[in-house]
Amino acid sequence: MELTCIVCPVGCPMVVEPRSGDSAPDVSGNLCPRGAVYANEETRAPKRAVTATCAIAATPENGKRGPYAPRRVPVKTSTPCPREKIPALLADIYGTKISLPVKPGDVVIANWNDTGIDVVATRTLA
Asked: Cα–Cα distance between 29 and 101 in angstroms, integer?
């Protein structure tokens, strides 16, 4: 399997050869040890950072903000999410409504499904 390392801007082209059993795969082409760690994780349990938006809860104050006021708040996961769980996480994010005010780092969803993943706001909205 061929992978391009995304840990740093170098983007090393790597070749990953799986081994039998639970041992780490053979990795070649990486210029630093972080590439081997990335290749091992990517082949065994891939994870991704998730970014999305949450709706702003309707309140009387929101109606006075004007037609060009934002209606959604950008959010991201605090840690990468297992790739197979991303659709369920996105469904929960899109179903969440945030009350204002909110600032970067405010936890919108805490410990999602007991995974240790928090969803946090990335923009200030008052």
From this structure: 48
84 and 61, same domain (yes or no) = yes
Sheet of 26-28: strand order equals 2-4, 13-17, 26-28
What pTM does this model have? 0.78
* pLDDT value, residue 44: 87
Closest CA to 12 of 2, 21, 22: 2
Of the pLDDT bands very low, low, confident and very high (cuts 50, 70, 90), residue 92 is: very high
Residues 84 and 36 in one domain: no
Task: Please name which of 3, 31, 33 lies closest in space to residue 15, comparing C-alpha atoms.
Answer: 3
The maximal CA–CA distance of the chain, rounded, in angstroms, is: 63
Residue 55 DSSP SS3:
strand
* CATH number (domain holding residue 98): 3.10.530.10
